[in-house]
Amino acid sequence: MSIESSNINVQPHDDPTRSGLTLDSICCERGDRLLIQDLSLHIADGQGVRIEGPNGSGKTTLLRVIAGLSQQYDGQVRWNGEDIRQNASSLATECLYIGHLAGVKALLTPLENLSWWLSLHIPSAKPISQEVQLQALQSVGLDRFADTPCHQLSAGQQRRIALARLYLSEHRLWVLDEPFTAIDAAGVVLLEQRIAEHLAQGGMAIVTTHQAMNIAGFTSHSLSVMSANGAIS
Amino acid sequence: MSIESSNINVQPHDDPTRSGLTLDSICCERGDRLLIQDLSLHIADGQGVRIEGPNGSGKTTLLRVIAGLSQQYDGQVRWNGEDIRQNASSLATECLYIGHLAGVKALLTPLENLSWWLSLHIPSAKPISQEVQLQALQSVGLDRFADTPCHQLSAGQQRRIALARLYLSEHRLWVLDEPFTAIDAAGVVLLEQRIAEHLAQGGMAIVTTHQAMNIAGFTSHSLSVMSANGAIS
Amino acid sequence: MSTIHRDEHAPIFAAFNALLLRDLRVYFRYRGTWLNPLVFVLMVITLFTLGIGPDPSALSNHAAGIIWVVALLGIMLSLDALFRADYDDGSLEQLLLSPQPLYLSVLAKILAHWFITGLPIVLASPLYSLMLGIPFSAVPALAVGLLFGSGILSFIGAIGAALTVSLRSGGLLIALLTLPLYVPAIIFGSQFVESAIEGWPLMPTFSMLLGLLIGAMVLSPLAIIGGLRLSQDV
Amino acid sequence: MSTIHRDEHAPIFAAFNALLLRDLRVYFRYRGTWLNPLVFVLMVITLFTLGIGPDPSALSNHAAGIIWVVALLGIMLSLDALFRADYDDGSLEQLLLSPQPLYLSVLAKILAHWFITGLPIVLASPLYSLMLGIPFSAVPALAVGLLFGSGILSFIGAIGAALTVSLRSGGLLIALLTLPLYVPAIIFGSQFVESAIEGWPLMPTFSMLLGLLIGAMVLSPLAIIGGLRLSQDV
Amino acid sequence: MASWQWFHRLGSPKWLSGTIDRWLPWVLSAGTLLLIISVVWGLAFTPPDYKQGNSFRIIYIHVPTAVVALAAYYVMAIAGAVSIIWRMKVADMALRAIAPVGAALTFLALITGAIWGKPTWGAYWIWQDARLTSMLILFFLYLGIMALHDAYQDSASGNRAAAIMSLVGTVNIPIIYKSVDWWSSLHQPASLKFTEESTIATEMLQPLLLAIPGAYLFFIAAVMLQLRVQIARSEKNTQWMAERSGL
Ligand code: HEM
Ligand SMILES: Nc1ncnc2c1ncn2[C@@H]1O[C@H](COP(=O)(O)OP(=O)(O)OP(=O)(O)O)[C@@H](O)[C@H]1O
Ligand SMILES: Nc1ncnc2c1ncn2[C@@H]1O[C@H](COP(=O)(O)OP(=O)(O)OP(=O)(O)O)[C@@H](O)[C@H]1O
Ligand SMILES: [Mg+2]
Ligand SMILES: [Mg+2]
Predict the structure, then answer these.
(1) Model pTM above 0.80
(2) What ipTM does the predicted assembly reach?
(3) Count: domains in chain C
């Protein structure tokens, strides 16, 4: 079992201090299987990368390494030239991660959920007002449900609460693992717009999705399992 | 707040004993909102219905009513002409439901998960052999992971365990809520084939999905929220 | 218990067996998990003796009562997980939708739970008697009492677990719901052991315990099934 | 605590407050949840009196120890949920990724947990003294002891909760890990109450309790953070 | 730099494996020899105690095991600290190796103590005794750390969790030592004193003074044996291990 890996936007070794995210020969092993072998890539301002691969090819594993959640990897992840193992906090302030799990408390309302998340992740001196938060909820179509406990919402609606963070985020790097899960077609279009907007403003994004996606400025990078067995045979 | 509903394959009142699934003026209210109003439809052998609608329009609610999980509705759900409230077991033996939650034990292996499910849901006198179960797992690309604890599998792989049931099912009616969630593109194609096969063999299917789906023999039925606000605005 | 056994003519028991086996597997998957309730009981007894301080007679005088209360707590502690895990991962839906009789499925789950909580606690009876200075002649009675008692506690506790499975309010609500129901079992159970220690006749309390167990076994699944069905409509 | 308060110059405490508020809201969302640990304690004490039987003096002699052990159990029972809910719904990931100091976040979560478990147990001290025949003059000491003790127990228990959050092996492993660590708190706690009942000097045990609390507060978050980070790599 | 060389070498499983191979026979035989001598001396050539008769002879097993069981916890906690600070593989292996040995020694001390308790105190076990109870707690600590190890499927996480737990558990060590002073206890306070005159008769003391180092050596040998298993398990895919087993 081994993994093919192609370098796009390569030359990661050129200038170690350059701005943006640099992956330098990342290797990941899980359960005795080598999932990611010697992956290097660089993402600069305004760039988006879509990580592709069949189920079980290691996309989530890679994204968790990049976000700093997982420590079990070889190689380096550098943010603005600095190894995130040495300086985790510089990435933490500038990175937004939304994973398979939404990070939404079922007992709280969408507004409450947004509010605790903001206090943890957007620690600006000027607090974000409730109106602004309501606007973000409106952007994901949840304004009418702002005060409904989340466990009463549908699967897609719950996922939208997590995505409302994108409308308030000032983070430079977005790491989104399957953001379109459970979202309806109209919602996907609007999300794509939001991501494109983020890139246009000089942001960066790493996204995985199994659905079709069209956003300008995105390049693809595929993690493909060599003995292509991940697909339904 | 009210719901539009269009009748396809109508005339549910004609012949109450006819075979297949009949919904007769189903109304569902949840949290003071009328979600489904006066929905009637009939599904006969070899027919598939796709329930469409934006997030939060009531698709899951409807599917849970049909499967017999939810009791809170007005109207009648009839299976072969019999109200399922009167005779739940006749539907139970012939209906396969896969919901948003996969019903997969994280600590068990795919094979073990398949095996307990089979004993509960396919109570044939002749037990289903391990080889046959392995074949089903192979159909969803999990044969190499048959003995790996599920919590070590990726999101898509875990979902595939639930879908492996489709390859062993002898149920006439399939009720599938977002079966393609987390499944990669190749997997979706194969699942579509499997569903088409099921219909070709005279089975019935009710499916929801936000992704494009093309399976012959499917009609669509949309639950659309009147004040179209469910979409990301 | 090591391989799935299916009787050709009894798919109903095949389902019962499969569920029992499944739950036992889940419990045993991590080595040592099944020992936890027992270790818990031994530890609480240790702590009690620490908290109560230097008065050896106080302990042995009330040994029967202490063992019963602690065993109850150990079983109850683990009851929260009985249905909640199934609820959270969706396998409860599959259980409820199965054409197999729910009554048997519920019995299988409770039995599996008892195997890993009640049974080790029963088997450790000689240990308690050593720790708390109960005469060895009373050990059989202690074990039999705990055997019945732990069964009763499992059934009653399962009612609480079923009724609270969809409420995200934590395991303590179960305690609140079921402790009052435990009272008869506790009273007769510790009386039984006391009778054995003191050499009083055993039959009256024994038959009470047996009656309680049979009653709980027959009736509690009905309440449990109701609670589980309810959980799907929240 | 009713509205989010953000100090213009202290976003760090804004995060602390937000997390504290969030957890309290979750705990209070279902009416009665916060009463559960207290009711549990009262019930177990009631059961003990039932199990131990008609011997009032036996209980009051060991009242301090009994209260301490039972309070510990009530707190420990509820500790399983401290981080597990966050782990299951992904908000633990968000917590760990926040640029805010984790130390404070962990403190906020423990404090919130203590508010709904430890505090009610402390406030109910007069009730216990009534139930177990402790002289009223000892109630302040009982309350102060429980105040410190419940804090210590919360911090130590949180270590066990953090180290086991990713293991699906049930809450009893927490007990196995943390009960040995509870021992000093139990010993000094019940000694403190006993000293109060008997009229012995309070300062020596008081300062030990204070020291334990401060030690636990300062050191345990380090172990907790280690455990939580670990949970993401399983 | 040179002074740190030993430290870096210590971090290499290969070096450690070689060292174990070289030292194990010596340590094991020296430990066994000392134990045999002291036990035979203690059992056969020491006069019976004027109060306890012959039952006191169990001291030659009880005291060494008890002393080493406590010391083992320190060593384990130090290994835990090294593992957390320097992320040294060998420290993880050491922690894993010491836990079961320490648990076994603690268990032995408990059993021999209990057996000794029957003739001297009239009961196998006295709950209210601080020394006894705190020793039981030490036993639980060892068990908890072992259970935590086992509970993690992923060995790297399991190692780290166990390291954290072993450090946390050190808070109990002073309690175990001080318990005799804090509680009323039937158990002997420390009677082996280096500063003052020892309270044990010299004839009884001499074999004991041999047995304690013997037990230490025996402990080290047992840990080395365990370490060998750990190294073989975690280094099974490395080249040097393949060469080694090929030889
Ligand atoms: C289960 C019961 C017992 C346990 C758990 C136990 C535990 C211990 C421990 C942990 C030590 C080591 C102390 C240290 O290193 O400072 C020790 C030492 C000792 N024990 Fe025990 N003990 C038990 C029963 C007894 C009995 C019944 C006697 C004899 C009356 C006894 C006599 C001694 C003596 C003489 C020492 C050496 C003290 C010293 O010089 O430090 N023990 N025991
Ligand atoms: N802790 C672990 N132990 C063992 N194997 C693991 C572990 N975590 C992940 N894996 C394995 O790594 C592989 C990749 O998992 P990952 O979640 O990264 O896949 P993915 O590309 O995100 O898949 P999906 O499209 O289904 O989300 C899977 O086959 C899984 O079995
Ligand atoms: N128990 C409940 N109490 C209150 N409201 C509820 C409850 N269950 C569902 N609802 C509401 O019913 C609506 C429909 O939910 P449902 O899960 O059926 O939607 P859905 O069509 O499946 O959406 P999705 O595409 O996101 O899965 C949601 O707006 C939800 O808020
Ligand atoms: Mg993934
Ligand atoms: Mg839905």
Answers:
(1) yes
(2) 0.84
(3) 1
